[in-house]
Amino acid sequence: MNHPSIEQLATQLESPNMSDRLAALVSLREVPAVEAVPLIKKVLYDENLPVRSMAVFALGIKVTEESYSTLVKLLETDSDYGIRAHAAGALGYMEDRRAFEVLVRAFYEDTDWLVRFSAAVALGNLKDPRAQAVLIRALDAKEILVQQAAIAALGEIKAIEAIDRLVEFVGSSDWLLRQKLAESLGNLPSAKSISALRYLEKDSNPHVASTASFALKRIEDSIL
After folding, report:
1. Distant-in-sequence, close-in-space partners of 92: CB < 8 Å, separation ≥ 6
2. Domain of 125: which CATH number?
3. Residue 60: pLDDT band by 50, 70, 90 thresholds?
4. Residue 114: pLDDT above 60?
5. 10 in a domain, yes or no?
6. Structure pTM?
7. Left (φ > 0), alpha (ψ -120 to 50) or beta: where does 143 sit?
């Protein structure tokens, strides 16, 4: 199948039709990053939010020095909280640890919970152990989705020291949070994790119970 040329994609990104611009962004996945990023930037401030959002996501996939610095700028300065959240997510997708301080600052300073949620998820994606303190603080967030993100991220960074805080959530009324907890504990082999997972294995929700069983097996395999 013939793919559109760079010139064709550049023209398509200037189309008045939103669907054309979105299709062009999708097609850019076949284009090397160094050529794709200048084209993505053409629609970073598009009047249509879905186009902007997809462009931000595309920058997280097409990794160049320019895409990194552009995402940092968007996270720190864009007036739209959705775009800031997408920028945080894209920085995490890059797995570039230079973004650590930017993401921590976003978590502490951004006024929108969705941005803080995305920052917590991204910190887990970076797998940087320095994130432990901010993620433990995120466990006290009033938004349950932020708590879920922090629980998952603490598992991603192998934060063994956080187990005492994590096991406090075994009795949560939210089954998705309990499922995230089971997944996270599977990355943190210890006697306390095993005890909590055996408790969650008997959970009334089948998704939680099966996740706990899988996590226990993962711990057993890592010990053998």
Report:
1. 60, 99, 103, 118, 121, 122, 123, 124, 125, 126
2. 1.25.10.10
3. very high
4. yes
5. yes
6. 0.91
7. beta
